[in-house]
Amino acid sequence: MITNRLAGMKGIGVDRSTAMADAADDENILRMENLDTDLAPSDDIIEETKKSVSAKGTNSYIPYYGKHDLRSAAADLVSRLSGVKYNYQDTTIISAGGLNGIFNVLLALLDPGDEVIMPDPVYSGLINRVLLAGGKPVFLPSFINNEGAWESYSEIIDKIVTKKTKIFLMLSPVMPTGQVYSRKDWEIICKACVAANAWMIYDSAMGRILYDNHEFIHPASFPGMAERTITVGSVSKEYCMTAWRIGWITAPPQVFNDIAFVNISNTVCPSGITQSAAALALRKPDMFLEKYLRKWQARRDFILKTLKGYPVIKPTGGWSMLMDVSKYGITGEEAAKRLLDKGKIAVTPMEGWGSSAGNFIRLVFANEPIERLAGIRERLEKAFR
Asked: What is the pTM of this model?
């Protein structure tokens, strides 16, 4: 590698899995490797986007912080979900997607060697952004409980907090596991964050994609957390607007200027032609999600029922689930190759997605309808028999 900045970083794997599936050029392949959904945004969002292409002022860099209506809509959404009142003018800036926002916050807050506590397993792209920003990932492990779902070892968090802990980077549901933190988990995590005088970056991109009647919980709502929680959101997942590339950062006023400075230094500005549609989306009431949730949960339930007996771990939120392939005596990389070659299923191996994910593969269930998922068990049997 040319620079030490890249030392120790792993690829996300999705790009390789997608390239192999594309090269096969076979419509029968189940595309379960990439965190996409086949469900479209609502018609009004699409129409608003079309109008924006030719609207006056959209083909522009300015305003650099994002259009005022969108910033206001994002601040209002975070205020409503967290119970903390945010004035968009000194708290909220628009980013070019959620991950861009997270990276800019990390660049604004981290000094070299600062530690960032993260879930384990977790998206390798988040890990890489911590490393690129000069931080050191510290993992809060999870386990599979008696119900076959993920659960956090939150009670050990005090053992991994040190004097170098600067940030808690948390998301619920966790990607890729679909683990949802309970209120007790959040209480323990937030108490540790306050005691460490650390920042909380809350990745809220999938926060309301919850199943089995799990409640939405925002960390800023806990004692001592409003002044240290930075919410980073995106329209990509909850609003099915992946290609719009719009995210937002809502932060306490005392750190807003630093984050805004990094945001315009790194990205300059988000897309001009998608901002009005994003603002329209953010003003929708929570019930807009219900039709999406019903379809995603139906697909999740179908796979769990169809693959009963296989080592698939139940997600309680999000778009994906993991399968442990260690019982077959192979790695996640080998399993992904078998599934593509023999079962015509494109999946992503989890090597590099935390400290203990190398034996897992990820199956995205949000991108294929049940009609196409119907033969998934037979496909797995061809690959693993």
From this structure: 0.97
